[in-house]
Amino acid sequence: MPSLVTPVIPAGRLARTAQPELPVDADLRLRPWAPGDAAAVVAAYADPDIERWHARRVKDEAEAAGLIDFWRGTWVEESGASWAISPVEGGGVFGRIALREISLHEGRAEVAYWTVPSARGRRVASRALDAVVAWAFDEIGFHRLRLLHSMSNEASCRVAVASGFEAEGVERSAVLHQDGWHDMHLHAKINTRIP
Fold this sequence. Notes:
The protein is built from 5 helices and 8 strands; from the N terminus they run ββαααβββαβαββ. The protein has 195 residues and is α+β, with helices and mostly antiparallel strands. Helix 1 (38-45) packs across helix 3 (61-77).
């Protein structure tokens, strides 16, 4: 059945190029995940907060390598885009930021992120989020980005608010965590620069 509206973002807009590295500021950059990041992914998912809010555990580097391959594959499939949050100088991983559930036709995606304990308290997540939003809106032409977090995750809410994501409501009993069903706070940001 033909659509009566033109896609917001044409198919192939992501996949026809390599996933870019995105500058954040003088200290941070967002880079595509690499196979050599497997140990950092294992360490990150061993953190109790990341495990709690993302309901995942990565048991070893082989499993982490598979996860990295999956993240890299979403770019080619145009279903997601995932970056390692890294220092500009030197190596290491401070966190992950991603667009997931991408719909190019409707010009929307969901934002997800985490940071390792040593990166917390320095606005790493909100700085990375600002860079992803600028790229998604200005370079690619997304219309709407949404962000969901557990109502119990106050730190994630602070990141959303700091980056200008407006609260839109609560999805009741929406995500199953290890301790049961969580109500999810919905935030969104609209690209007002395009019609």
